[in-house]
């Protein structure tokens, strides 16, 4: 059996015990098949989670070796990635533990009343004495609060209007985290409520914002068409949330977006966990679109977005972030990030409302016809429109002229246009 995939030379020069010069393990958070998790403290207030995995304990089977590669990949792919809506991986080391290292861990104060863990560490200490070293992987990461699954279990029984803005914030936060991964050519491959975390709160708040995407053990790089793509593992991730095409080895970003569509539906429509598999199956496999019950407080056009995100066939599905737009009807400003979004500005205007829309120059140029008039090419937004209660619109045929008829502000990076629905 080969060694665990190395993390990198920059992180292998120190051991976990060398971290104790600035980090103390203050409390024990739990353990499982992948090892032990502690709450670490550096200085007075800097909190983190420290995961310690003795990789020999995972076994000697092929599947166990895959687990080792997953654990290593979790750090390697996410090293240097920082975003408000991602659990940050701070540092890692795969320097093996010596007998002395194991004994230092055994003597940590927060473990002294945990007989099960002390017995396990005693066995590891004896093994280290015989073998000299124990293969180990240690990862320090941002400390988080409870998972989205905890929140949904508590709050999806009864509809509380006071939680509507919270639900929208959850969807927006987890989307921004996933979008950042995709912009960095990383697939998550296991996007589900159990892997979406609330922030840690020093005041003890259970569900603090921002919400963060975590658990990167199944992440893989997305290769472009000019790069040889390694075969992807079939059937990875939770069976409830994984896209149909993951039964094959050729899948990409749309598989993550499919999972996001299901989770966003679960959050916004208060779908109970016991009903998720049956409802997801009826929407995806049976095309029962009527199951998606739009509410007035949802993001504009989000019922249609859920249906498009969760199409069974990739060719029928939303395939990229250019086609996704989370617009809060209560906000007066929004940003257009793609030509596709530019073409659907009118869909997000409400009767009698006005919005300030910022469009970057590159996107705007794709949407404009050349010439002195600079008229919008495919943008279905007009200087007078009516939108009825069924979201159908009637438009006059005089397109907005950016130079003459609308308010615009120009700087080096973008143009801001004010649209008004009359």
TrEMBL record:
It comes from the Eukaryota. It holds the Pfam family Pkinase. ATP binds at residue 51. GO terms for cellular component: cytoplasm; nucleus. Gene3D superfamilies: Phosphorylase Kinase, domain 1, Transferase(Phosphotransferase) domain 1. GO terms for molecular function: ATP binding; protein kinase activity. Keywords: ATP-binding, Kinase, Nucleotide-binding, Transferase. Residues 23-335 form the Protein kinase domain. This is Putative serine/threonine-protein kinase PknB. It comes from Folsomia candida.
């Amino acid at each position: 059996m080969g060694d665990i995939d190395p993390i990198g030379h920059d992180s292998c020069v120190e051991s976990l015990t060398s971290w104790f010069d600035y980090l103390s393990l203050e409390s024990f958070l739990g353990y499982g098949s992948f090892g032990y998790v502690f709450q670490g403290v550096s200085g007075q207030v800097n909190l983190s989670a420290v995961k310690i995995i003795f990789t020999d304990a995972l076994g000697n089977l092929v599947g166990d070796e895959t687990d080792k590669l997953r654990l290593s990949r979790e750090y390697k792919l996410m090293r240097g990635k920082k975003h408000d809506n991602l659990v940050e991986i701070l540092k890692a080391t795969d320097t093996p533990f010596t007998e002395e290292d194991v004994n230092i861990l055994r003597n940590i104060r927060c473990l002294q009343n945990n007989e099960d863990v002390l017995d396990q560490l005693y066995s590891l200490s004896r093994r280290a004495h015989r073998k000299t070293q124990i293969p180990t992987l240690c990862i320090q990461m941002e400390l988080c609060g409870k998972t989205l699954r905890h929140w949904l279990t508590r709050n999806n029984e009864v509809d509380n209007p006071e939680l509507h803005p919270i639900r929208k914030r959850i969807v927006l936060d987890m989307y921004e985290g996933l979008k950042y991964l995709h912009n960095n050519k990383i697939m998550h491959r296991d996007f589900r409520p159990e892997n979406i975390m609330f922030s840690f709160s020093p005041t003890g708040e259970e569900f603090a914002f921002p919400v963060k995407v975590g658990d990167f053990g199944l992440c893989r790089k997305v290769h472009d068409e000019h790069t040889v793509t390694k075969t992807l593992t079939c059937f990875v991730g939770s069976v409830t949330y994984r896209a149909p095409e993951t039964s094959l080895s050729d899948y990409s970003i749309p598989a993550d977006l499919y999972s996001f569509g299901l989770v966003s539906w679960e959050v916004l429509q208060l779908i109970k966990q016991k009903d998720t598999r049956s409802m997801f199956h009826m929407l995806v496999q049976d095309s029962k679109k009527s199951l998606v019950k739009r509410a007035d407080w949802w993001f504009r056009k989000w019922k249609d977005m859920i249906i498009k995100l969760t199409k069974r066939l990739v060719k029928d599905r939303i395939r990229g972030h250019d086609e996704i737009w989370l617009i809060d009807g209560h906000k007066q400003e929004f940003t257009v990030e793609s030509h596709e979004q530019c073409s659907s500005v009118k869909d997000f205007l409400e009767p009698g409302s006005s919005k300030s829309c910022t469009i970057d120059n590159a996107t705007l140029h794709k949407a404009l016809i050349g010439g002195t008039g600079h008229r919008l090419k495919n943008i279905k937004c007009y200087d007078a429109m009516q939108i009825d209660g069924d979201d159908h619109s009637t438009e006059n045929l005089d397109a907005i002229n950016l130079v003459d008829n609308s308010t615009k502000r120009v700087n080096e990076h973008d143009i801001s246009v004010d649209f008004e629905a009359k």
